[in-house]
Design brief:
The protein is mainly beta. It is built from one helix and eleven strands.
Length: 126
């Protein structure tokens, strides 16, 4: 059974940091593009970042560029999202997903995902 399980969410003050993890089972993350999405209350899900199977290509939403970093550890079958300088508007449920085609990463679209995790809540508040 294929699973993507997110962890690392929580409550953090503005300006703080969190590292999210997306651990895969049943698939090898080295064969998939891994994406991070987020959905804030009352808003549509949006693409945050994504990384190619080899890790050489990444993409970021403009709203997180320079603050978030995506990385993968294929040996641990895990992809990470390091989030620094967090802002209240970063509050959302963060989910990871896997796709075969990097095109969906270049577009930061929710289309084309083969697998989804259930998400982890990030709350940025003082």
């Amino acid at each position: 059974q294929t699973q993507l399980v997110e962890s690392g969410g929580g409550l953090v003050q503005p300006g703080g940091s969190l590292r999210l993890s997306c651990a895969a089972s049943g698939i090898g993350v080295d064969s998939y593009v891994i994406h991070w999405f987020r959905q804030a209350p009352g808003k549509e899900r949006e693409g945050v970042s994504c990384i190619s199977p080899g890790g050489s290509s990444t993409n970021y939403a403009d709203s997180v560029k320079g603050r978030f970093t995506i990385a993968r550890d294929n040996a641990k079958n895990t992809v990470y999202l390091q989030m620094n300088h967090l802002k209240p508007e970063d509050t959302a449920v963060y989910s990871c997903a896997a796709s075969r085609n990097y095109y969906y990463c270049s577009q930061l679209t929710t289309n084309g995902m083969d697998y989804w995790g259930k998400g982890t809540l990030v709350t940025v508040s003082s």
